[in-house]
Specification:
With 207 residues, the protein is an all-alpha fold. It has one domain. 70% of the residues lie in helices and 0% in strands. The chain has helices at 2-7, 9-54, 60-72, 81-95, 98-101, 105-114, 125-129, 134-143, 147-160, 164-172, 175-179, 196-202. It is globular and about 75 Å long.
Length: 207
């Protein structure tokens, strides 16, 4: 009876659908975790900037903070001094854009994730930034001159499921200069399960 069940078209169809649901669930969970991590990074970046400005703590502050956090959370890669510097750089890069800095970051990013199953998310920049892996974010702010260019590559990464290598290639080839002004509205969905973006989201070493 078992052999007959496996051979039926109905069972094979149902099994294929079930596998797809599992992949989508895994990916949705990974995107949500990635988004929550980036929300934490945003708040941490804001705190670092504020503490260094108001308390006048120097660069030694990041060394000490890194040491203390890594001792408490030894399994997390995100608390190296270098990554703390990148978190600060990432926050400063986007917070200089008033349209981004004045948005309620947490609610928008969470709304973006919650709307993914229905197919699209609202097009607030913060919601889009929170949906791509940290490595993609760092590549973008390291190579883009302004937030307009950066958001162009964020949107295209989501729309085309770019891996980080493809993203870097597109930035270095000057895609924004060629097509930046022609970008129109588009739907943002979960990355395709077999895409490089999906795989890098699932295997993100920072979460």
């Amino acid at each position: 009876m078992k052999a007959n069940l496996i051979l039926t078209k109905e069972y094979k169809k149902w099994l294929a659908e079930l596998k797809q649901k599992v992949r989508n669930t895994q990916l949705k969970a990974a995107v949500k975790v990635n988004s929550e991590m980036l929300l934490f990074y945003w708040d941490l970046g804001a705190d670092i900037v504020a503490k260094q400005a108001k308390a006048k703590w120097g660069e030694g502050f990041l060394t000490q903070l890194s040491k203390d956090l890594m001792e408490e959370f030894p399994g997390m890669k995100g608390f190296s001094k270098r990554n703390l510097e990148l978190i600060r750089q990432w926050y400063l890069f986007y917070s200089e854009n008033r349209l981004i800095s004045q948005q309620p970051v947490g609610p928008i990013a969470k709304q973006a994730v919650s709307q993914l199953p229905s197919g699209t998310i609202k097009r607030q920049p913060v919601g889009q930034i929170a949906l791509i892996p940290w490595g993609h974010n760092i590549a973008i702010i390291s190579k883009c001159k302004n937030t307009g260019e950066a958001l162009f590559y964020v949107r295209n990464t989501l729309e085309h499921n770019w891996s980080r290598n493809v993203l870097v290639h597109q930035i270095e080839s000057g895609l924004y200069k060629r097509e930046g002004k022609s970008l129109t509205n588009f739907a943002i969905t979960l990355p395709k399960p077999q895409s490089d973006l999906a795989q890098q989201t699932l295997k993100n070493p920072y979460i």
